[in-house]
Amino acid sequence: MPAIRAMAREDHHQLIAIYQAAVLSCDPSLYSSAQKSAWAAQATQLHEPLQSGQGLVSCADDGSVVAFALRAPLDRLSLLYCDPKAQRQGHGQRLLMALEDQARLDGCQILRTEASFVSKPLLIRQGWMVRWREELLINGVRFERFNLWKPILKEWPRLNSSNS
């Protein structure tokens, strides 16, 4: 089971590399080369959110960081990325569960996010709901994404649960 821990400042360079690798490896049926290049170029803007947001990382068995999630502000999932070599191994799901537990403890009643075609299926499986689909430009390139939300119900946190 992937180990989840708080994001540390020392992780930031590795997280940016994970972000870029995840974006550039997106299925070409979902995103064109131009879209992936424009999206990956956004990595230069990650330093401030990584420093000011509240984040978690998921680690491989050897302790290396392979995925991360960030809330910024506290009621918004702003980043969720996984190294392509570690995808489909439960890192994203576990990060979402832990992030939702933190949000609940922080008193959030809902979480919101803007999701790509890549992350939308995972979020939907985790109980997130689509509010609308929107178009935007990133570095002059057209994209579509989904605005989603999830109510954070009052329940006991799963962070230390034996059922996780």
List the helices and strands and how they pair.
Layout: E1 3-6, H1 12-24, H2 33-40, H3 47-52, E2 54-59, E3 65-71, E4 76-82, H4 91-105, E5 110-115, H5 120-125, E6 129-138, E7 141-151
Parallel strand pairs: 4-5
Antiparallel strand pairs: 1-2, 2-3, 3-4, 5-7, 6-7
Helix pairs in contact: 1-2
Q: What's the CATH first level?
A: Alpha Beta
CATH fold annotation: Aminopeptidase
Radius of gyration from the alpha-carbon trace, in angstroms = 15 Å
Largest sheet: 7 strands, mixed
CATH architecture: 3-Layer(aba) Sandwich
In the CATH hierarchy, what is the superfamily? Gcn5-related N-acetyltransferase (GNAT)
Proportion of beta-strand residues? 25-35%
Mean pLDDT score: 89
Number of domains: 1
| Net shape | globular
> Order of strands in the sheet with the most strands?
1-2-3-4-5-7-6
- Please provide the ordered H/E string of secondary-structure elements: EHHHEEEHEHEE
Number of H- or I-type helical stretches:
5
Low-confidence runs of at least 5 consecutive residues: 160-164
First and last CA, distance: 9 Å
Percent helix range: 25-40%
What does this 3D model show about the protein?
The chain is of the alpha+beta class and 164 residues long. The protein has a single domain (3-151), classed as Gcn5-related N-acetyltransferase (GNAT) (Aminopeptidase). It has five helices and seven strands; from the N terminus they run E-H-H-H-E-E-E-H-E-H-E-E. The chain has a seven-stranded mixed β-sheet with strand order 1-2-3-4-5-7-6. A hairpin with a 5-residue loop joins strand 2 (54-59) and strand 3 (65-71). Helix 1 runs antiparallel to helix 2. It starts with a strand and ends in a 13-residue tail after the last strand. 28% of the residues are buried.
